[in-house]
Amino acid sequence: MIGPAIVECSFSTLVDFPGVATKRPASGSVIIDPAFLGVKGKIAMDLETRIDRLESIEDIKKLKHVYMGWCDLGYPPDKLGPLFTNEAVWTSAVFGHHASRAAIEEFFGGISAQIVFAAHLAMNFIIDVDGDTAKGTWRILMPCTMMEDGEKISRWILGDYDEEYVRKDGKWLFSKIDFVVNFNVPATQSWAGQEIVRT
């Protein structure tokens, strides 16, 4: 049976630990119940988990920002593809359903002919991490230039992303992007009456 742990400290710096039995001998030592060792282990484990969760959120934010940055630079498939798992899905009622990294790369390879300029302004993120998987939601406001019948048209797109991520070999990747276009209108027109909200 493990005996009590003895910790030398002055009474002026003594801290009581909730739920942990302590005794104060005259010597100035503190005798701590062995249960405290389990409490310390749990505190350390909880702290490690919390730090990993915070670091994962930052990594996922960077993943999203890198994704948006490459989209702004013409949607290069060779740069965007590695951000996805091989089994990933990119889906949108407006821009199509693309299952697998190869299909996503093919999609990006063609979209630049339609969207010749874009500024992907991502915001309002909520990211929930559970071990090596995570889910996130984002909003996007995107001024862009689209080719329509050979003519460049300035447009505003508002949308939202529902995303899933997975950590492989220590690196976070997209496993799913579900993009809903709330509105897509020429810059000179109102979007009133054209709004679509995710249900």
Question: Which descriptors apply to this entry?
Answer:
single chain, 199 residues, alpha+beta, 3-stranded antiparallel β-sheet, 3 helices, 10 strands, 27% helix
From the N-terminal CA to the C-terminal CA, the straight-line distance is 59 Å
Sheet-strand content, in percent, reads 35-45%
Q: Report the total helices.
A: 3
Classification by helices and strands: alpha+beta
Helix content: 25-40%
- Regions with little confidence, pLDDT below 50 for 5+ residues: 1-18, 20-25
Mean pLDDT, nearest integer? 86
The biggest sheet, with number of strands, parallel, antiparallel or mixed sense and barrel status, is:
7 strands, mixed
Listing every helix as H and every strand as E from the N terminus to the C terminus, the arrangement reads EEEHHEEHEEEEE
Radius of gyration: 26 Å
- Describe the global form: elongated
Report the strand count. 10
| Oligomerization state | single chain
What does this structure look like?
The chain is an alpha+beta fold and 199 residues long. It has helices spanning 35-72, 77-80, 101-111; strands at 5-8, 22-23, 29-32, 84-92, 96-99, 115-118, 121-130, 133-148, 151-168, 171-186. Strands 4, 5, 6, 7, 8, 9 and 10 form a seven-stranded mixed beta sheet that branches. Strands 1-3-2 form a three-stranded antiparallel beta sheet. The model is unreliable at 1-18 and 20-25 (pLDDT under 50).
